[in-house]
Automatic annotation (TrEMBL):
GO molecular function: 7S RNA binding
Listed name of the protein: Signal recognition particle SRP54 subunit M-domain domain-containing protein
A UniProt-annotated Pfam family: SRP_SPB
Boundaries of every Signal recognition particle SRP54 subunit M-domain domain copy: 31-95
Domain of life of the source: Bacteria
GO terms under cellular component: signal recognition particle
One Gene Ontology term from the biological process aspect of the record: SRP-dependent cotranslational protein targeting to membrane
Length: 135
């Protein structure tokens, strides 16, 4: 019997980041205040875009979450209606999700591959104490 592994649900990790943007106004304001930062979905407010993106992710079926790039246009219209967003927003969000998944895969293939991705966002560990040969 061969064990099949499920592809990871990368949209769940993206959803956690979006929840932080939607619920932590100070964090969202700090990100938005950075030079060159704009909402990846083309909206004016990070918070509103994050809320719409979470609704889009929640409207997806489990199979669609595993491969968001293969969703048909009629299904995208249904997702937009269920999420209360425009079809253009759903298209932008799904293309962002595909790019996000590709970036997650490329990070896993680099020298950071032995770390969990969540470890990359934690504060760094305390530096080692200074080595003292006399002591």
């Amino acid at each position: 019997m061969s064990a099949t592994t499920e592809p990871p649900d990368r949209l769940e990790a993206l959803r956690r980041v979006l929840l932080r943007l939607a619920n932590d106004e100070a964090f969202a304001a700090g990100v938005q205040a950075m030079p060159g930062m704009a909402s990846p979905f083309g909206g004016v407010s990070f918070t509103e875009d994050a809320q719409h993106a979470i609704a889009v992710i929640d409207a997806l079926e489990p199979e669609e979450r595993r491969s968001p790039g293969s969703i048909s246009q009629p299904r995208r219209i249904d997702i937009a209606a269920a999420a209360g967003a425009s079809v253009d927003f759903v298209d932008a969000m799904l293309s962002f999700a595909v790019r996000y998944s590709e970036q997650v895969d490329s990070v896993r293939q680099t020298r950071w591959a032995f770390h969990e991705l969540r470890d990359l966002f934690l504060p760094p560990p305390d530096p080692p104490s200074q080595w003292n040969p006399r002591g």
